[in-house]
User: Fold these one by one.
Assistant:
Number 1:
Amino acid sequence: MSYVWRESTRGALVSGYFGLVPDSHLSRLLGVNTCPSFNSSRLELERSRVWLHVRSQTSVDEVSALARRLSFRAIALTTHPYPQDQRLRSHQRGNQMNINFRAGRFVAAAALLPACSTGPATSLDDQDAISSENAIVDVAHTDVENEAIGNCWIYATATWAESMHLSATNEAFDTSQSYWTYWDWFDKISAGTSVTSKTDAQGKVVGADLQTGGGFQLAFNLVRKYGLIAEANFVPADTTSQTSAAQDVALKAINASLFNGPLATSAARTDRKLLRDELNKAFGLSPTLVATMNTVFGESAERNFSAGSTASATGTPIVNAKNFETLSPRISRSGSAYSWRTSLSSAMNGWQEASYPSDPTARRMLQIRVQKALHARAPVGITWGVDFNGFDRRAGSPTYGAFTLPTLQAAGKAGRQGGHLTVLEDYEAILASGETLEAGVTLNKSTSKDRAKLASALLPETQIKFLRIKNSWGDDYFPTEGKAGYHDIYVDYLNGPIQWCSATDPTSCPWQITPLWAFLLPPGY
């Protein structure tokens, strides 16, 4: 499933620090008809040009007639083969015709359709990015990876950015999560935050513990300041495995340095050059890469890409977020929906977190907003609480590899817990008629039957059964059948409530919480 939609309301912002492992901070967060002749697939506003992609069977005369009806002048007619890549894997292949109409100003996508539509006008994100008989597809995603140290928020941000870049360029860019982890530790340690003490059963301090948790907004700040880099250019060994051994090794090395090594004192931790030297050694960075980072940011990272700073990545493999291309849906203030081709920097400014409300009606309205974004193929982010006793590991179970409330209740107690950030792939819904729209099943919106199903999926009476996430636990961790690396979270679990335990004493579980905290949604959704 996927599909069509738009709405202009937004939810409130939830902020905080989240990681796969328990974090004491968590306890404080309780908290369509298309034109029949042309079967147009995408109307994209780009400066003053409006691009319309149509099926190759459409004749030039038909295109010219459309141009006249729209009072536009067709200034370019070309055909080209559509690329065959991962994003288009479920599409009909073939030639596409690009028709470029020049308008005197920006034109709302919906305004183009009444001239040739026999039904209600639809707005831009109703028009799929590729014209085909089977135009409803999954969110574009890159390969699954496996976090090693509880920095799920960095992995979620990477897959979010990679998805939009894949949609924009057809390039599966492999972002280095280790690079962002490096700079996260640099910022935290130099600011004197996120370093705690490890104690034994007798309360004796036996080590230092750098907290690796974070959230989408913290990740966005890192990307704004330091940009991004391909995995192969930062820790090349990370490209050969889903799990970054370098991050695990680096965390142990930095914790040792913080406990009784060069970074053991507060004064040492504010020595930014010394701190970078320790991080360079901990991650095993090559002298060439260190020199490159010094050139861009300075030995003490006195420069960055934020406004007012002077860092320049020209001629290096480091990419300023302003130069990283993305494509995502967006709804304007006037209600027009369109495909938003922009930089990662602008995307981070536009996407917003919406908190999950307590009222059932308000919850359903937020679910509908999420459905709409998924229908437009947006990589919606989700922030939620993990209790591993709610994870079904029973071979042969119909909910194997999923989080469900009955599974947690059957365990009789809380398990290992922590906040988690991931990105959505799909959902499964039960319509008011009782029919189930199954996750992973593509619907054909060119047929009236499937259009009716899609419309029904977005009604208040529809019940969302589960959300399917692209996870960061590797593809061999109790995988969903046919979707290695993906897991289902049942809404009964997400609605809770569930018992939530103390991070310092897992046997003390005084709180009842709703495990679903927030969604990250594109502008206007």
Number 2:
Amino acid sequence: MGDQGLNQLLDRAAALAKALEEARRRAEEIGPVFLDSRGHLVTLMGNDEQTEHARLALLRRLEQIRPSGDGGEPVMLAGLYGPSGAGKSSLFNLLTGCHVPVDVVRPTTYGVCAAVPEALHQRGDLDRLFPDAQTMPLEDERQLANPEFAGRQVVWLARVQRDHREGELSVILLDVPDFNTVERGNREIAQDMLSRANLVVLVLTPEGYAAKVAVEAAAEACGLAGAMVVVFNKVQAGSAQAIWEDLLTRHVPRIKAFEARRSDGIRRGEFLGRCPVYALPFVPGGPGLEALDQAIRLDQPDGPSLRDQLHGQSARRIIQASLAEPASMLAQRTKETLESLKRKREPLDAAIQATRDDIEALADKGARQQIPIGEMVEVIISELRACQSTIARVVGKPGDMARWLFGRAGRLIRKARASQDKLESEVRSRDDHERAWRDEAGRKLGGVMRRLGQQHELIFPADMTDNHQETIARKVESALAALRGAHLPEGGDDWKDTLRRQTREWYQHNHRKAGVLLTALDSLSVGGVTVLAIDLLATGGFGGTVLGAGGAIGGAGAIFSEILRYFGFHGIAERVNEAYARQRQGELATHLESAFADPLALGKWKRARDAIDEFCEGELAETLGKVKTALPPEETAR
């Protein structure tokens, strides 16, 4: 692959990294809506170490491939990676001609030693290769053994002289701290360098190759490296071959991570089996460059030497593969996220719909408990007077009014007056009624949402504690207190417009009765004369009148209903009352959802569902497409 192809690759990989970062950010917004089987928060993307390592590997390798702003050639990083005592520093000395400390005390070195070709020193842009680390020139090998630097992100830069062949890329060799060192900071540095290395040289010994930590580290390296070389140190070729076969047949199958597939479709375990393998016998008398000539390639005796694996013509393909591997892993995680989101869409829908159903039912109950008789009387009187003002006043026969007033209605009035105290106790002001409804609705809905959260493993926007249920209970009580303190919305007047229109239509066909109806309503709304007037005065006047269902049937509502029925107005009143109930139900439902359910949990559930829809239709699906096209498979170095 030429420089033009590599530049195109870099552009596509950068676009892919940006898309994956955005997908990760959005997925983290959704993830905490759910719990796992242990009751812990779930993050749907970047929720495990391997995914995080892959994300960092992609971003860091993009940073380092083109370190120079002057259009200089890319740089390949090769890392010596292995357990304590494997001989990485000795091999580093052999490969570079540098001299780093070699001792039996572990850890021998602190930080990373980078063998940097002279040409890269001249470019003066090495800090961009290691943006998270402190770079220092290596002037004395004793600097590496100074415990003052333990656990710090330090990269020691050692100059090395090497002939640069035409067409080759510059290679920086890293002596990486032990991944099983007792120094935790050094383990983190080793992991950081693994995420940067395009080529990994896995160094093992007969004593430590089968340790679980070593085999697991090999599995992770197989998932991130563009290419990998295995070196069995301090062992003859025959013994190394037996160890190699034992590693592949006995120990690799025990580690599940080796089952994961790389970008070219092969499993990590198969990739490891295809890697170049070298046996490097121990050389008495100290390290020397001639010792590399004794390194024997087990899988292909006539293949390239160990030195050529680091400095050959395959560097560009290795760089490409080192981008493809973390991208492939992230693509798989993205796909798994997408599938997980789709599975979780159903319980979210169920919880949201069930919550809204209960909100609708509670709002409907609250609306139908309210009968605004006083406001209805006011509207009818006002509209009839307006109609009569446009034409000559028409009054029904006085006998009609007398017969009605002292007949059936009279009996109702006398019966209602006899139980006046009881009627007044059944009539509540709008504020009293809505306060009681609000408290009942909040408690019922809070209980419903708690059960839904448990059933579907959804959480409330609360900190997770050891006693999660108590935390949710406090959240419900806090939301209920906020609901009690919130003012219910003022009722709209749409139902009044309906009543006015229907009153005018009634007047067109019943204008002779209008005067009698108007007189009857006036007589029932004059202070202290009738039970209706008493009821209204006891509850704050026409505008504030709300009767519970029982009060309406047994008291003023019955009288009002009888008046309307006598004049053929009853059907109109029923339709208007239904219009009022529907309108008020919508107002109460909106208020209950926005003032109580949304802050408690419903708002978070809805946002998660909407984000899932957006992902499933757009962002994540588009990201998967970018993964497939951004890094086309190409043969990597073997």
